[in-house]
Each structure stands twice: as C-alpha cells, then as structure tokens.
Amino acid sequence: MSGPGPASARLLRRPLVLLALLWLALVLVCALHPELVTGRDPVDQDLPAALSGPSAAHPLGTDRLGQDLLSRLAYGAAGTLWGVLVAVLTATVVGVGLGLLAGYLGGLVDALVGRLADLLFALPAIVILLVVVAVFPGDVTIAMLTFGLLLSSGLIRVVRAATRSTREELFIAAARLAGLSTPQILRRHVLPRLRGLVIVQASLVAAVALVMQASLAFLGFGPPPPEPSWGGMIDEARAVIVRHPWALFPPGLAVALTVLSFVLLGDAARDGATAAWSATKLARRRRRSPGAGVARTTAPAPAHPTGSAPAHPLGSAPAHPALSTPVHPVAPPPAGTPRHADTLLSVRQLSVQLPARPGRGARTGTTVVSDVDLDVGPGEIVGLVGESGCGKTVTALSILGLPPGDGRITGSCHFAGVDLVGATDRQWRTVRGRRIGYVAQDPMVSLDPTLRVGVQLAEAVRRHTGLGRRPARARVLALLRDVGLPAPETAARRYPHQLSGGMAQRVAIAFALAGDPDLLIADEPTTALDVTRQAEILALLARTSRDRRMAVLLVTHDLGVVAALCDRAVVMYAGQVVESCPVTDLFARPRHPYTRGLLAADPHRASRSGPLPTISGTVPAPGDWPTGCRFAPRCPLAGEPCRRAPVPLDRLGPGHAVRCVRPDEDRVAA
Amino acid sequence: MTGQPLLAVHDLVVDLGQRRTATRAVDRVSLTVAAGETVGLVGESGSGKSTIARAILGLTPVTGGRIAIDGVDVTHAGRRQRRALSRDVQLVFQDPFSSLNPARRIGDSLVEPLLNRRGVDPVRRRTLVAEALGRVGLPAEAVHRYPGQFSGGQRQRIALARALVGTPRLLVTDEPVSALDLSVRAQIINLLADLQAELGFGHLFIAHDLAVVRHLSHRMVVLHQGRVVESGDAEEVYRRPVHPYTRALLAAVPVPDPGRARAALAAFARQPPQAGPVPGRCSIS
Predict the structure, then answer these.
(1) Alpha carbons B253 and A402: distance in angstroms, whole number
(2) Which UniProt keywords apply (chain A) (predicted)?
(3) What is the pLDDT of residues A46-63, one digit of tens each?
(4) What's the gap between Cα A382 and its chain centre?
(5) Has residue A560 been placed in a domain?
(6) Which of A128, A133, B230, B278 could cross-link B222 (Cys pair, CB 3.0–4.6 Å)?
(7) Backbone angles phi and psi of A567, in degrees to 5
(8) Domain limits, chain B
(9) What does DSSP assign to residue A304?
(10) Are residues A390 and A493 in the same domain?
(11) In Å, how far are A248, B22, B248, B273, B280 from B276, measured between CA atoms?
C-alpha cells in the first residue's frame, strides 16, 4: 500500500469502490432532488398500467395502483437515507464517546459503561422498536434514534478495547510526559488510532439500520401508505408476489446494493484514512513470518555425489565426504585456516529474491540476499555477522529451505553431499532436525505452550531417532542434563511459560540437539538474554560443539559473541558477504572498511575520551542498493572505481576474502 | 550547581503489583544527578533500573522514599505539578518504534512539549521544532513525514529531539541505544554527548551495557535485584570493580577480542557467578 499518488486517488482505481461510490451518489441525488431522476409523481396512479413490467413509460414498471416504481424508489430515498443518518450518528456519538471514556479512564467509569453496554446488548431490539413505533407511529427519526442507541453497545465495546490497548502504548506515556492534558491526548493520539475502526463500524451500523428500517416499513410501521418508502414497496410487492414477482426486484435490489455499498465504502475509507502511515506496520509484520509451507520454484535437481560447485574465491571446489567418515578434530582457530578440504556445508552463489507484490508498490521481486558464499567445516563454529536488514537471517533460513515470505532461492547449498537447493521433501525430512538443528532468537516461539517440555522433546527424539517410548524418555533427560538444566526431571514436567528466558533457550537448544545434528544453525540465540545468561548459553554452545563435534552457524550482530565463540567469521552487508576470515584475522587484521568501521565504533575498543568513531549514514534497504560497492556511500575510502561496477569477493590470503577495491589502504582516521 | 543536585533520589522503594502479591522492584535506592553530569544506571533485566526511571517521571507510584528535583519534593506529585514538571524533566524510551505515534506526523509529535507553555506562540513553536531537528541532525522538512518513513536510528534522533525541544534540565534515557544497530549506535552515543555539552542538561542514562555506560557517563551506579551494589566514578568502577556482582557482570560481557573473550568464557564456564540473590546488603554503596 505504498504505491505512488495520494491515497484517495488510489482507492478510486478499485472498480468496486468506484461502483459503490457512484451508486451512493445516485441515491443521494434521489434523496435531495428526486425530480432530477424522474419526471413522474410517486403517487400518480396510472391504473391501466397497474402491475406492468419495465416499459418506456415506466422504466422499472408499476405497482398495484399503477404508481411508477422508479419514481417511488427515488422519492423514498430521502426518508431511507435520513433514517440511516440518524442511526449512524447516534450510534457513533454514543459509542465512541462512552467507549473512549471507559477505555481511557478505567475504574468506576469503565464498570458503569460496561454494565450499560451489557444492558443495551441484552435488550431485544425488535421488541423495543415495536414499542417505540407504537408510541410514535410513523416517526422514522425517533425509531432510528432508538435503534442507533441499541446498536451503540457494540461500538462501545470495540472502542473501549481499542482505547485500552492504545493507552498502554509508549507514545501515550510520552505525550503525558510532554505535559499534555487528558483531552489533548484523547484528541491527538487516541482518536486518530480509532478512526479506521470507527469508520468500519459505522458502515456496518448504516447497513444494519437500512435493513431494519426497511423491515419496520415492511411490517407496516413505516410512513403511511401513499408516501413512498423502500420497505413499504417491498411490503406491497409481497402482496402480489405470485401474480407479479417483478415488483419485488427494484426495491429489493436498491436495499441490497445500498447495504453492499456502505460496507465496501467503509472498508475503502478505512484504508484511505490509515494509508499514510500503515505501510510500515504491514512491512514489519510481513518480515516476521517465515512461511512454513514454502513454494519453491527452483526445479529439483538430482543430488550430485561429487561437488561441482563453480570456482570460488574461498578455496578449491569442495569435496563432500559422506558424513560417516571420521571427522577431523578441529583445532582452535589457527591463524590462516587451511582450505576446507572436508567442508560440511558449502554455500555458493546463494541468492534469495522475494516475490513481487502487485498492488503493494513493488512491481519486481526484491533481492534480499545476493551471491552468498559460505563454508562450514565439521565441528567448526562460523559467525554470520551483520546489522539488521543485511540478510543474515534470510541466509540462515534459506539454508534450511525456509526463506521468509515465499522467497525464491537460487545458487547451491551443498550439505554432506546433497544440494539442498532443490532437495525433495523426502530429502528434507532426513536433513531438518536430524542433520541440521535450528535455534531461534526467541525460544518461546519454538516451544508449544500447551505441552510439557518433556513430552515435546520426547516426540522430537522419537521422530528423529526412532527410539521407543522408554529409551526416548531417558534420552530426553540426558539431553536436558547436557544443556545444563540442574534438575532435568523437574524441567521436563514444566510448561514452557514456567521457564525463565535462559532456561527456555537451553530447552530450545536441547530440541535442536534431539536429532544429534552435524550442524546447528543458531539465529541470535542470546540477543534476548541478559549478559550473564548470554555467557552461560555461549559456554554451553562452545562445550556442545566441542563434545559432539557439531558445527555451528551462529547468526549474530554482536562482535563480542563472535570473538568469544567463533572460529571463522563471515561479515555481511546489504545482502552480500563483504569479508570472510578466521576470527583472529577479523579482529587483528580486518580488511574491509565496513568491518573496520564496526570494530572502531565498538565502545569496548574505543578510547574513553573523545567521540566514538562512527560510520556515517544508515544501512540501505533491499532495493536501494547501489550498483557498485554497496558500502561506497558510507565509505571514507570510496572513489570512482568503487561506484562504477559491482565489486567481486577477492581472496587475499589463506582463508581471507574481501569484497573491496582497495583493501590494503588504511582507513583514514574517522 | 548550587549545593543541591538537580535530581536527588533518597531511599526510593517501589513495590509492583497488587497489595498481596507485590514484589519489591526497587529497594532503598539513593542516587543524585547534577546539572551537566551523566550518571549511568547499570543492571540486568529485573534489576529495577527502568522502574526507577518510571518512578522519577511519575509513571509508577512510589512506595517509600523521596525524589526531589531541584530540591522540590516530587515523590507524590499530582497531575498539575507533573505537567509543570514536564518542562524540566524528559524521558527517551528504548523502543523508537512504539514511542512515536505512527499515525501522527513528526511535527505534531515534536510540538507537544511546547503546547501547554505560556508565551510560546505557533510561530515560535515551529522555530523551536526546526531547531531541535537540526540539533539531532535531521532536515527541517521531516516535520511533514510519518515515523514509518524513518529508520530506527533516525527515530531515536526524533525521540531525542522531542525530549529536548523544551530544553529540559534533566534528561532520563532508558536504554536509548540498545535497540539500534551497531553502526548507528555509536552515532547516537556521540549525539547524546554532544547535546549535553551544548545544552548542559543532567542525564540519567540507563543501560545494561557497561562499555557504553563507561563511555558516556561520569559516574556509574550498578543495580542488582532492586539494590545499589556499587557506585562511583565510571572509569574506576569499570577498571576496578569491587563488588562481586559488578565483577561477574563485567566478566560476562563478551569483549571483541578473541583472546580475552575466550579466556573469559572459559573462566565463566568453570565457575559461573552466583545466580541467586546477593548475600546481605553490601556496604560498598
């Protein structure tokens, strides 16, 4: 919803909305100036033509008395619209007013308004209305006023709930701290948030009121007979339904079309009222949903047993040993890691493109990850480092074949001899969970809140290992002990919500370990935790990786975490790998200006006096990437060659690759 | 600075929750902030640091103790006094996404601290808002745009501009940089330091990252489970922590230096610091 042009103009391009608008405009013209639509008097009786169908003289036919149906419809519009207006105004004023007060003030006011809403809700509307029209016969205004009041109970509740949730927002606290009074806050902050909601509710009230008004007239409580009304016309048509069914169509269709138009227009008006600011909200929500059922458009390719990846700067084409071969012990990060003769995971030219969203502004798909090369050796811990929006999480999820938002994956991703890009569902079943485990940033999302931890874990263990019930249970306890939970039996009996953040992350790691994987992909596993809990989880990951000879691909934005845990680091910026090297090189000899900038800006490394060295500007969004070096606009060294063409990832030394035109020049003091 | 500090919190106690099930979030905390000074308040989640900020600003009722701003007791200030106080005390929240109303233009949000000021006419308001935006490094035409059109770092600049548009004398910031990206974080830290040098406000800076606090603060106060466990000169506390909890906290922060980080993690794995409550009340503070 972020396309060009003003919101109102965009809405008019929706054909249904345009039709609804035209119809309501026509009804409005009828209500104000019916003589413009028809030359006939609605009470003129053309008896010879009684009960005729459409003709030149009577475009919509006539009723029993020969009165022109078009004319009666046109002249009846005024009363109908007036009734709807009265009901909508009453319901909106009462509903929004009381709902706002109840929601914002709370306490006694809330309780009283709540009871009132209950009372209005409990009253049988039709009975009350019949009493009212019996006391004030033929008075549409009072009947619709009453009906609006009865309908306001729904609005009171909806507005109250929305107000309550808005009241808890931080920006309300900010407004209070800015010294605004309650009426000011309601007018400036709460009402604008309710606008969309109220518009939709009002359109529903309008629709219901129209039907109710027609029903009352149909029951004989409308305006007295010679006067035209839509409900009355339906009643008259009912009397002759067998002899002349046509007479039912004009008033029936008019009611139906008007009701539909109200609802359609209500939706459209809501979108229009919030279009200016809601685009980002949608975008944020979209980002959070890595689809489970992923449409993969790459053709399934046969798994090749011998690696035939294209030549790449990180080393020679990797071989893919079967995983049963004994795994070489991995030394702690040596300076200048040798070529990965025995690569476990080898990602080449991995790109992810999110599909185009017609009507949402994006006409072509957006590339969020481009040409990522990445190797993980057996037992090796590799850090995938970058800021938000650089594509590190998308890369990690794409390795698992789960790109967010129906993303399209291209390139190759060899894991233990199988190209996962194009793997069949059957191949995936043997890989996900069994060979590759996954730990998410928020442990709570990966645990089912309705099941005890032990039950969930046992299910995972049995699925991945085929163990029986009892051995699986023993394995669950062993796993929980492995991840450092002091009382595994107690922990197994807990529900996820009874766990603290650190414990929940341990359980989530136990989950990932259930299939005894060769590779663990951990996406910001400690970001939501306190530093002491973080240190515990990092120590756990280090120990688990060492004891099980399990490789870890650690997605993180924290250079300290990389330093503490990783053997090698892959730095991403704007969807690309910009530097890839052993972790000792990363901190001692960073070559890419972005890596250097990040390190310099870290307050741990900066001297205390004077300002921190900074990288100017912000990370560009996918779609706004420059054609040349993507870091050039923020780079102190950038020159003409940087901006001209895309920069390749060059191999500098053993295991060290950099995507920079001038990696040897020292950064000017920032 | 005339003897009394800008902000004086004395023996503050805050209980959260209903009467029966109330938990003591802040337990007899005392601290001061002078004009032109930055005091860092450090602690993990649940240490009560945000609750202290909310109590100072009147967003959470105080159970006991005293909060004075410029020597005036504001512990139980009423609505009217609070609104008058908004002139002197402002807060910047951690989350730059929810602290700005997405449905209102930047200009509408920025002008709010000036709305109920006497003697500030609409023309003057516009000038002040433009000045505030310029101070945080944003163009003046940003007033016509919505928060959704800005990145996290830019929004935090906007939030900072809103807090400073009325030139308060005390600024409280609650984890203002922890939601930001690395390369943007340093920009905001520098901005906070520059603004303080320019405007001379007292700054209570709440964070969990000791390195950031050390960089920005003159003094540091370490909280654990609602109590002050250590306080003193920021550099001194960072370099020579005395309380075991401060030491544990410092040891747990992974340093971007493989040698040191690995050694620290190995030490941590051998002997994790006590997770339970700190035994007794420390006399260090």
Answers:
(1) 32
(2) ATP-binding, Cell membrane, Membrane, Nucleotide-binding, Transmembrane, Transmembrane helix, Transport
(3) 888 888 888 888 888 888
(4) 30
(5) yes
(6) B230
(7) -90, -40
(8) 1-88+168-285, 104-167
(9) P
(10) yes
(11) 79, 20, 13, 9, 12
Whether A113 shows a pLDDT value over 90: the answer reads yes
- What pLDDT sits at residue B271? 66
Mean pLDDT, to the nearest integer, of A250-254? 92
**pLDDT digits 0-9 by tens, A125-182:** 888 998 998 898 878 899 999 999 999 999 999 999 999 999 888 899 999 888 898 8
The answer to whether residues A349 and A260 belong to one domain is no
The residue of chain A with its CA nearest to that of B234 is A608
Nearest in space to A574 (alpha carbons), one of A493, A658, A630, A628: A630
The secondary structure of A159-184 as a DSSP string is: HHHHHHHHHTSHHHHHHHHTT--HHH
Tell me, yes or no, whether A121 lies in a domain: yes
The model carries a pTM of: 0.77
- Compute the mean pLDDT over every residue in chain A, rounded to the nearest whole number: 83
- DSSP-derived 3-state class of residue A248: helix
Residues of A with Cβ-Cβ distance to B181 under 8 angstroms: 387-388, 557, 618-619
pLDDT beyond 90 at B219: yes
Contact check, Cβ <8 Å, B153/A618: yes
Q: What are the structure tokens assigned to A110, written together? A: 């809330």
The per-residue pLDDT for A561 is 92
Q: Is the dihedral of CA A110, A112, A117, A122 positive or negative?
A: positive
State the smallest CA–CA distance between residue B58 and chain A in angstroms: 9
Whether residue A171 and residue B101 make contact (CB cut-off 8 A), yes or no, is: yes
**The pair of three-digit structure tokens given for residue A522, joined into one six-digit string:** 């951990």
Find how far residue A468's CA is from the centre of its chain.
40
Reading the block at residue A286, the tokens are: 């979209």
| Per-residue pLDDT reduced to its tens digit, A597-635 | 989 888 887 766 778 888 888 888 888 888 899 999 988
Q: How far apart are CA A474 and CA A562, in angstroms?
A: 34
Give B100's contacts in chain A (Cβ within 8 Å): 171, 174
pLDDT of residue A327: 37
**Are A534 and B212 in contact (CB < 8 Å)?**
no
Q: What is the pLDDT of residue A528?
A: 79
> B1-88+168-285, what's its fold?
Rossmann fold (3.40.50)
Domain count, chain A: 2
Nearest alpha-carbon partner for A166 in A201, A191, A184: A191
Distance between CA atoms of residues B251 and A507, nearest Å: 25
Return the top range by mean pLDDT from A30-34, A460-464, B57-61, B229-233.
B229-233
Rounded distance between C-alpha atoms, residue B5 and residue B70, angstroms: 7
